[in-house]
Design goal:
The structure is a homodimer.
Chain A (H helix, E strand, L loop, with lengths): L1 H18 L12 H8 L3 H13 L3 E4 L3 E4 L24 H5 L12 E2 L12 H14 L14 H10 L13 E3 L2 H12 L5 E5 L4 H9 L3 E5 L1 E2 L3 E2 L1 H7 L5 E4 L13 H14 L3 E4 L24 E6 L11 E4 L4 H12 L4 H12 L2 H27 L5 E2 L7 E5 L6 H10 L2 E2 L1 E2 L12 E5 L6 H15 L3
Helix pairs in contact in A: 1-3, 2-3, 5-12, 6-12, 7-8, 7-11, 13-15
């Protein structure tokens, strides 16, 4: 307690100096050794001070040169507007929505600011490969056999164990594995909603979920959100009498990257239980938090088995592995049946390999680095956007995840910018894709999952210049 | 030509002697060397004679002991009745159908005569493991990356090349890969049919397809079939005005194992094109033929792009790999969109590994052995059934695939037998699962994908005895 107090106090003092501008962006800070001398504390305490300041994004370490004040100009950029979708149920022909979305997939000549997954350069490839080889050797029939219906036991055990980290108390028997999170969402929606039903989604919303709703013939009501505090609980409450199912991404929802406060999550869970509306919770970004703590989930507050909590390793470890899961609460039997009918099983070897990878404890080490890298990337992106994007550009303040939301001054149509950018071999996600309503024309999503390089900075600068030509 | 004539003539002579009973079941035939002396032909010609006779199932080779006349008593058992479903559209709550189907999954204490896939003992595990390791090493980002949307290029190229073997002319661009054949069927049905539509299926039909139709809210019309000649084209024709989509398994349909003659396939394709009804063709058993030639597919006769031809390696190579494909004809765009929306991608590593395995040419060698083993198994099963099952039992004459259809004398309810057998740790598939109508109560499906052993023979004998107690 004494020591905790000490390092917190020192970190607090330095934080104030940074935030007030006494310490300037890019300025070098004392070495760990010098800090320990200056404050008369141990080396370990001194290290914890910098760890704490890094976690708050106030300080950056550079290999072989020490600690520096993080660039924070971008914090002066205004926030995007809170979304204000109309309280109407929209349905749409999926064909209209999706045409052209995947035409760029597989092109190697593009800079994919539109990519929603971390680049392979950030992933622990060597360790994963080793796990695949081991799984192939250790499975009784080399993985040619079907898994148990509920899915790989090790994977379920580890996902259950990790639920303690977000205030959950899952057991392995509570979980059903799936082929990625998207597959989990498909199964949940098919189990709970039928053609013509109405589903509530955040606005803006990940286009994949809008496509899915459209392809299942579901009507969509969009929920107002705030770029920092996330889901507008009052707005959701107003929609409740009209909806059948709710699908939310409370933690680091793409594109905005907000984290809905725990109290609001709790309120949402209790409201939905009251109305007997099932909540599908997509927590696939939950492990990519930039703060000090893994945020809780709606599932943490679920006492009725009414929350179907979905996750995957597609945003953190290996998109191409197709490994996901769902804790379906009281809907477990329905989920199991649908899984059996629609896919029989997932890929045995790969799920075994990921289960083993989680068992080794390497995942947490790796995640720590991934989070730091992505947070650094975000700061670099935001700084560059502040420098080179049109005057009046607003940006979100992601508290985790992989993406930034940009709001251009009115008049810049991101659909047109998409076409312009593509000619310069840059792929972006236009704002219009994130809604079924008439909004977000001047918005776009940028993924910061690509490694930050000078080349990438130039591309981002180029994108800003293209936007300026449209004013 | 001269040589062909020679070996065919000798084989024909021996065949007549076997069929007429001059040569008896189990009798030893001359060695290759002695046969060559006896007829004054080369050793190679002599070998071809036995190969031909084996292909006709008249002769069996036993390692280190030579060639013997195959047991064929079972050919005297009567055929099951041709199915005569009512021409009504049925729909059903999937829950009613599926309860208990998967409760036995994963149990290791049961003898799974109900298993619809070949046992791991029959699979080329070592070679497959090697391919997985190689794929993990050779893929640019170790397989963590998403595949191209249409799927692994090597896999598509090889499936296209193999289509020459069944009179197809597919190009790699005609194919879309899927996570197993079931996933292909799901995507096809979702693309082509909407809730309330009517689909035509063979009667009896693989339960997984009935479950799928039910879970998508489709009504089902069952098509009459004959245990040897398969789909009753006239019966299908009568249903056409009432159906929206047709899903057929013309080659070695489980449970009956028939092969619909090529002329009938051609007629079916032309009829459906005339009525503009899409045909989903499940050809997942097509490579497991017991005769001399890979049968053609409906797709072989498709000039309108109206046939969606689906396949997988789940019945031949590795059920747990989840590797399948579809050549969707003119519905390719719809299929691609649905694949993108519902699963994004398949598992990169595994699809690459199977693509490479097919490239090496090992698949054909391996399939040759697999077919021989399964055909031998079938004969052993059938012989044992003839010996130990109740008087009046009828059995199908599978021309390929993995399963036999048994018709017990009226009065033996296979649902009751299922319960009895489970107590003796034997799992069977009751006939009632293969229809939505009131039929097949006295029928069951037996898989012969388990390796034939004395132990297995005793289990089958035990099953026969249990059935006898029910008369």
């Amino acid at each position: 307690m004494g020591k905790d107090f000490l390092y917190n106090q020192i970190a607090g003092t330095i934080a104030i100096n940074i935030k007030s501008g006494v310490l300037k962006t890019g300025e070098r800070l004392p070495s760990v050794r010098n800090l320990s001398k200056e404050y008369g504390v141990s080396i370990n305490t001194s290290k914890r001070v910098y760890f704490e300041l890094e976690a708050q994004s106030l300080v950056q370490s550079k290999p072989q040169s020490g600690y520096f004040v993080s660039p924070m100009e971008y914090l002066k950029l205004p926030l995007p507007e809170a979304s204000q979708p109309l309280a109407v149920a929209n349905s749409v022909d999926p064909d209209q929505l999706i045409n052209g979305v995947y035409s760029a997939m597989g092109r190697t000549d593009l800079t994919f600011f539109s990519l929603g997954v971390p680049s392979g350069d950030l992933l622990p490839l060597t360790k994963l490969k080793k796990e695949i080889v081991l799984a192939t050797r250790s499975l009784k029939e080399g993985g040619t056999e079907y898994e148990p219906l509920q899915g790989n036991v090790k994977l379920r055990r580890m996902v259950a164990a990790r639920s303690r980290g977000w205030g959950g108390s899952l057991k392995e028997s509570d979980l059903v594995t799936t082929s990625g999170c998207m597959n989990a969402l498909v199964l949940c929606l098919m189990a709970l909603a039928k053609r013509g039903d109405t589903i509530a989604l955040e606005s803006p919303c990940y286009p994949g979920i809008l496509h899915l709703a459209a392809s299942l013939g579901l009507k969509v009501m969009e929920i107002a959100t705030h770029p920092v505090s996330g889901i507008d609980v009052k707005a959701l409450k107003n929609l409740l009498p009209k909806i059948d199912v709710c699908l939310l991404v409370p933690n680091f929802n793409t594109p905005l990257g907000y984290c809905t406060p725990d109290d609001n999550k709790k309120e949402i869970v209790s409201l939905l239980a009251e109305y007997d509306i099932p909540l599908i919770e997509d927590d696939t970004y939950g492990d990519i938090y930039f703060g000090n703590e893994r945020p809780k989930c709606c599932k943490s507050f679920d006492t009725h088995g009414n929350v179907l909590w979905c996750g995957s390793v597609s945003k953190t470890l290996a998109p191409g592995y197709r490994v996901g899961w769902v804790a379906p609460g009281k809907y477990k039997e329905q989920l199991l049946k649908l899984k059996y009918i629609h896919s029989i099983a997932s890929t045995s070897i790969i799920h075994e390999a990921v289960g083993n990878f989680l068992l080794t404890g390497r995942y947490d080490n790796y995640l720590r680095n991934l989070r730091r890298t992505l947070h650094d990337n975000y700061q670099q992106y935001a700084t560059t956007i502040g420098e080179f994007f049109p005057e009046g550009t607003k940006i979100s303040r992601p508290q985790g995840g992989l993406a930034l939301w940009i709001e251009f001054p009115k008049g810049i149509d991101s659909g047109e910018l998409y076409n312009l950018a593509l000619k310069s071999k840059i792929s972006i996600s236009a704002g219009r894709m994130f809604t079924l309503q008439d909004q977000f024309h001047n918005c776009m999503r940028l993924s910061f999952g690509l490694p930050w390089t000078n080349e990438l900075k130039l591309k981002l600068q180029q994108l800003g210049n293209l936007a300026k030509t449209m004013l």
